[in-house]
Design a protein that fits this description.
57% helix, 15% strand, 14 helices
C-alpha cells in the first residue's frame, strides 16, 4: 500500500511538470496566456498521475512478480530459453531484412525480432512438459520422463473449493497422498478473481485459497506443481477441470458436492475431502454411550443438539431439558451421507 501511495505522489509530480510544459507549448500555438494554460494542463497532469501511475508502474510489476512466483521452475526455465532462442533468431534475420528497400527495411527487422521472441516464448511456455521430455529422451537432460509424462504417475487435480477449504494442506503434510498435487493455471486465475471481489466474504475466501496454494507450493515434503494446460473450448472453470481430468486420466479433488455429481456423471474420478473426513470420524454403533454437551434446540419438540470434536452433529431425543450441560447419551441410529454424518441418541438414565 505504501509503494502504491508513493508511486501516486511521484507520478503526480512528474505528470504535473509534463502537463505544465505541454501547456506552455499549447498556449503559444493557441495564442493564449502561458500561465493560465500551463496551470490547467498541470492540474490535468496531477489528476492523471494520481489515478493512472499505479496502473502503469506498480500493478504490472506486482502482477509479473506474482506470475513468476507461481510458475514452476521447469516452465520458467523453458520460457526463458524460448525467449533467448526467439531473440537469437530475430537478430540473425535482422541483417538480411535490413537490406530491403526503405521504409520496409527499417521496420521489418524489429517486427520480426518481436514476433519471433513472442512466438518462441509462448511455444516453450505452453509445451514445457514436452520440451523437457524431448531433452530427457534425446540428451538425458532434465527431470526423469516419469515425472513429466501425464499418465506416468498419479496426479490429483485440485479445484478452487478444495484450496479455499484448506484441509488438503494438512492431509498432504501427513504423507497419505500418493501422487502429485496439480493446480491448473485457470484455477489460480479464478482464485485471483475471487480475491479481488468487492464482496468482503468472497474476497477473504479467495485470499485464503491463495494462502493455501502458497503453502502447498513451498512445502518441501509435498509433490506439487502448476500446469499450463488449457481447455479453450470450455468457458466455465468447473467444466474445464472435468475436461482436463478426463484428458489426463486423473482424479479431481473437491468438496463441491454438485461438481462431484456432474464429474462422476461424465466419467471422471472424483475424490471428495468431505467423504474422507466422514471416513475418519469417530465410529459409534447403536448401543454405545459417550459424553456430549447439549448446546442448542433441535427441530423437533424436546430435541437437543450437540457436536463431537470432529464436527459430527448429534441429535438427542428429550435433550432440551439438559441444555448447556454435559451428559452421557446412548446411540440409537446413524446416518452416513456424502454431505456429512448425523448421530441420533437418547440420554442415559439421568444423563449419567
Amino acid at each position: 500500500m505504501y509503494i502504491e501511495f508513493a508511486s501516486r505522489m511521484i507520478g503526480m509530480v512528474i505528470f504535473a511538470l509534463i502537463g505544465a510544459r505541454l501547456g506552455v507549448n499549447a498556449a503559444a500555438a493557441l495564442d493564449l496566456p502561458d500561465l493560465g494554460v500551463s496551470f490547467i494542463f498541470s492540474l490535468v497532469g496531477i489528476l492523471f498521475g494520481l489515478i493512472m501511475t499505479p496502473w502503469i508502474t506498480v500493478r504490472p510489476l506486482r502482477a509479473l512478480s506474482r506470475f513468476i512466483n507461481e510458475m514452476p521452475v521447469e516452465t520458467l526455465f523453458t520460457t526463458l530459453v524460448g525467449l533467448f532462442i526467439g531473440l537469437l533468431v530475430g537478430l540473425l534475420a535482422a541483417y538480411p531484412l535490413s537490406l530491403v528497400q526503405e521504409p520496409v527495411g527499417e521496420v521489418l527487422p524489429l517486427l520480426v525480432l518481436v514476433l519471433s521472441a513472442y512466438l518462441l516464448t509462448t511455444i516453450f511456455n505452453i509445451r514445457s512438459r514436452e520440451v523437457w521430455q524431448f531433452l530427457n529422451d534425446w540428451f538425458g537432460v532434465g527431470p526423469k520422463r516419469g515425472a513429466l509424462a501425464a499418465g506416468s504417475e498419479r496426479q490429483l487435480i485440485l479445484d478452487t473449493s478444495v484450496l479455499i477449504d484448506g484441509r488438503i494442506v494438512d492431509i498432504a503434510q501427513t504423507g497419505f497422498i500418493g501422487g502429485t498435487l496439480v493446480v491448473p493455471r485457470f484455477v489460480i486465475s479464478e482464485l485471483h478473481r475471487v480475491a479481488d471481489s468487492s464482496d468482503a466474504q468472497r474476497r477473504n475466501r479467495g485470499r485464503r485459497g491463495l494462502t493455501k496454494l502458497n503453502e502447498l507450493q513451498h512445502e518441501p515434503g509435498i509433490a506439487f506443481r502448476i500446469v499450463e494446460d488449457e481447455v479453450e473450448e470450455v468457458p466455465e472453470v468447473d467444466d474445464k477441470l472435468i475436461a482436463l481430468a478426463l484428458r489426463l486420466n486423473s482424479p479431481v479433488v473437491t468438496i463441491d458436492f454438485p461438481m462431484n455429481q456432474v464429474a462422476a456423471a461424465q466419467g471422471a474420478t472424483v475424490l471428495n475431502i468431505n467423504s474422507l473426513a466422514n471416513a475418519v470420524r469417530s465410529a459409534y454403533i447403536p448401543g454405545e454411550t459417550f459424553a456430549i454437551r447439549v448446546i442448542q434446540d433441535g427441530k423437533e419438540p424436546g430435541q437437543g443438539v450437540g457436536y463431537l470434536e470432529d464436527g459430527t452433529m448429534v441429535i438427542i431425543e428429550h435433550g432440551k431439558e439438559f441444555m448447556d450441560r454435559t451428559i452421557y447419551v446412548e446411540v440409537t441410529k446413524l446416518i452416513n451421507r456424502e454431505t456429512g454424518r448425523i448421530i441420533f441418541a437418547k440420554p442415559t438414565e439421568g444423563g449419567r
